[in-house]
Write a structure and sequence with these properties.
five-stranded antiparallel sheet; globular; alpha+beta; 3 helices; SH3 type barrels; single chain; about 100 residues
Length: about 100
């Protein structure tokens, strides 16, 4: 018998993201567990579309395996590119855990 978990509410997700990624805090490697048995590791990033996405219960996420390219592009061009990110649908999120500090 497999366990089923209810998705987190939009308010729970945004509270966790806003609290953890407030200005001045270091990014934290985050595990996002989704109801389709997929785990994402990386960190949330707001870019300029955070409010727009949040209204749709969607969140921009930089997968850990894309972080080096994301950082290198920023160091070369001085801008953060969304091309290294994915959009996570909040309706699919069952759990968010902050697992370790991100070593830059």
């Amino acid at each position: 018998m497999t366990e089923t978990f209810a998705p987190m509410s939009k308010e729970e997700i945004t509270r966790l993201i806003d609290d953890r990624y407030a200005v001045g805090l270091n990014p934290t490697v985050t595990r996002v567990m989704c109801k389709d048995d997929v785990n994402h590791y990386g960190y949330f990033n707001s870019f300029g579309d955070y409010t727009e996405l949040k209204e749709k219960n969607q969140y921009r996420f930089i997968p850990r395996n894309n972080f080096k390219a994301f950082r290198d592009e920023h160091n070369k061009k001085g801008v953060y590119s969304a091309k290294h990110s994915i959009i996570i649908n909040g309706d699919d999120v069952i759990s968010i855990e902050f697992v370790m500090p991100l070593h830059i």
